[in-house]
Amino acid sequence: MAMASNSSISLGQKLAIFPAVILGLVKTIIALILAPFRGPNTPKSFKRHMSLTLGRNVIGLLSPQQMQFMRGSTETNYMAWTQKHHVRPQSVSLPKQDTKAFWIGNPDAATTILYFHGGGWGMPGSSGHFSFASALISTAAASRKSLAVLVLQYDLAPAERYPRQLTQCVELLRYVVTDLHKSPSQIVLGGDSAGGNMVFGVLSHLLHPHPAIEPLRLSTTLRASFAISPIASFDTNYASDRQDPAPASTIKVWLRNYLGGSTTDRWNDPSKTDVAWWSEVDKVAKGILITVAVNEMMATDTQALAAKLKAASENFTLFVAKDDFHAEPTIGIDLGFQECEASRALKTWVVERL
Prior knowledge:
Blueprint: H1 11-34, H2 46-59, H3 64-71, H4 74-84, E1 91-94, E2 99-104, E3 111-116, H5 127-142, E4 147-153, H6 164-178, E5 187-192, H7 194-207, E6 224-228, H8 248-259, E7 288-293, H9 299-312, E8 316-321, H10 328-334, H11 341-352
Parallel strand pairs: 3-4, 3-5, 5-6, 6-7, 7-8
Antiparallel strand pairs: 1-2, 2-4
């Protein structure tokens, strides 16, 4: 079984990282000079514009394997986060899956969020994901609600391909229900970007079992599900990536790596679904929230999925953030930004359902 992070790269690939980063910095300096003349589809804030530009410039020059080497694994990032915040690390291992998940908060909390991190299936969970989870728990505690988050470490592409990652998501839910004896009514599914895509993959599997994944029948409905800037289509004809932390060219590589030799289907590409596919979604989740930034490159695809869910569900909510970028509730923490619109809306929505 492959490791969750493919961080073993050649000496040549390691040596190539430094000039790529330098070139990325040079391109960003040029963008800095031209910043006063930037177009209308760029962030209004100078700091946000430069941070996202630097991210796109560097990420666009590195391979997924080089990025994974630099970013470590979800586990190493979790251990570093727990040490920094003086939190005792706690994890679970899924039987026969060679898969781990990591606790934020008290595992005995009344409600548990199963969280699938973003990163294009090619990057690990980061400190931003863990800090966002911790902030959700603190917001719940302020309302005297008991909440914990269990963050899945799924295998990264291209070392592992679809449907391996979706299988791990389903098996985490199965484990929490079967082995930890939590009722589905105590469970919330959540994720950002690629993880948000897999939230809908799991919901699809509950409604229409994937032919390669063991069916999972729940005794009752899940408490809720949310997706932050989910990847809602594998059609990569993006109009602009000026308000996104990764360039469109890199997103295309990540999506291709995730699929491997597989084709798109209704479990990995929500744009392939129709309203009828989601007609019984209220029977598997009591509420569904999607957040999206109005100017992110995947906004049109995400809003098209939202229209289908709104037609099928009585308990669907779409929140469109005017000034955010893609998956800002988690990525923004890594970049040192203040709390964004989508983060505030999501916290309120989650707490109302606890």
